[in-house]
Amino acid sequence: MVGGVEATDMSTTAVIAGVGPGLGASVARKFAREGCDVALLARTESHLQDLARDLDETEGAGLAVPTDVTDREEVADAFDRIRDAFGPVDALVVNASGGAWKGLREIDVDEFDRAMAVGPRGGLLCSQAAVDDMLDGDGGTIIFTGATSAVRGREGAVGFSAAKFAVRGLAESMARELGPQGIHVAHVVIDGGIEPPESEVDDPEQYLDPDAIAESYWHLVEQDRSAWTLELDLRPHVEEF
Fold first, then answer.
1. Which Pfam families match (predicted)?
2. Contact 91, 12 (CB under 8 A)
């Protein structure tokens, strides 16, 4: 089921835009275990190839598509490759973000522009590339990865915070535009740190487990359209909450 619509006998095609060794990889593995063919978009090819091979050992399949999501032509070419390999896109997870961790007086305009390009511009380009497939088919799902900085600005991170606020606005606007046409758009606030891969932390309860986050993302894909989630707030279990 994608976007509350029953799947056909054909495989579900999912695109993860912004795949690193943490959350992006966990989401890709979860979707592939559920039988999705998963296309992996990021600038670094070596990690993508290894992950794609791992996904081929699951119920689904993987495809590494090295892509700069800020580049319109690269994004268009990437989605053409995905359709050639897997067919129309049913689900898109926009996980790409970036930004210099600097305050107003330290950040330069190029660093600020880069944060806005990777986040809201990249999200826009990937969504535009995917949405016609969903409108022509049985609907679909688009999920944006947000952060605490999407709902309250963070000191010393004006670029990252501005970009995350913009992504949240993009997601909410798209949800209202596309929801009546059968496309579920959701924004997920990651309200806390994500446990880093292959390294130990002093207090794991202070961090979110990326595999648990991936389970929540899949739940958004499966939701019946009568009760779609617009925004999901995920946070670690700590006493003050």
1. adh_short
2. yes
